[in-house]
Design a protein that fits this description.
The protein is mainly α. It folds into 2 domains: 117 residues, no CATH class; 73 residues, no CATH class. It has a 3-stranded antiparallel β-sheet. A hairpin with a 3-residue loop joins strand 1 and strand 2. Helix 6 packs across helix 7. The longest helix has 25 residues. It starts with a helix and ends with a strand. The relative contact order is 0.15.
């Protein structure tokens, strides 16, 4: 009976190989608790940046985001509270970013949507209102963004030179719009998004899914 029980235990213990930033591991897991598919999908969830390229047309942007969100929704991850919560966090991040990117993509056609997309009493809202009003309000916001960037730039005089050059152009309003949209509105709006802090906790929680892990190889730190 004892030998039989040991054989059963060994049969349900399987291995799965994975990496972190430095090392490659073999993990031994109980196949009665998790499937290889669940481990692979969970690993994908925590090791993928979930960045979506925002270039191209509105339709191309929509297609890419819809595809990524659909993929994450259908990941068959392990049924632990931590990773189920992580999946919700990833989806929230993607959906909030997607909503902002759609507004940004159509900003010149629908400037009012820039205002509606962000909360009141935020820097993003201030930039949105300037972008919507245009004219002197936009140029003032443009100057504010430049001066803010100069505070944390090793060559502030270069930024100011570019600003002065832009202000001499006949299409300065168009140039200011593009600049404030990205470095003012988008950066500020993005700070309001539900970001995930990838601090190593995710990998530690993943390794806890295994009965034990063995290090196969490590790069030099």
């Amino acid at each position: 009976m004892l030998v039989s029980a040991i054989n059963v235990a060994l049969a349900q213990n399987k291995t799965w190989t994975f990496d972190d930033e430095l090392c490659t591991y073999t993990g031994f897991y109980d196949s009665k608790k998790y499937t290889e598919k669940q481990l692979a999908d969970t690993y994908y969830l925590l090791r993928t940046s979930h960045y979506v390229h925002d270039g191209g047309t509105f339709e191309e942007l929509t297609s890419r985001y819809d595809s990524v969100i659909h993929h994450v929704k259908n990941l068959q991850i392990v049924q632990t509270h931590y990773f189920q919560s992580l999946k919700k966090d990833v989806l929230q991040y993607l959906q909030e970013t997607y909503a902002l990117k759609k507004v940004q993509k159509n900003a010149k056609q629908d400037t009012k949507s820039l205002i509606m997309a962000v909360k009141e009493d935020t820097k993003a809202r201030q930039y949105a209102e300037a972008l919507h009003k245009g004219g002197d309000d936009l140029l003032e916001a443009y100057e504010q963004v430049i001066k803010m960037q100069m505070e944390n730039n090793s060559t502030p005089e270069y930024l100011w030179h570019n600003y002065e050059t832009t202000m001499k152009h006949a299409d300065r309003l168009d140039r200011a719009f593009d600049y404030v949209l990205v470095y003012g509105w988008w950066n500020s709006a993005n700070n309001l998004v539900h970001h995930i802090n990838y601090d190593g906790t995710q990998m530690k929680q993943f390794q806890r899914l295994f009965i034990k892990t063995e290090t196969l190889d490590c790069d030099e730190p």
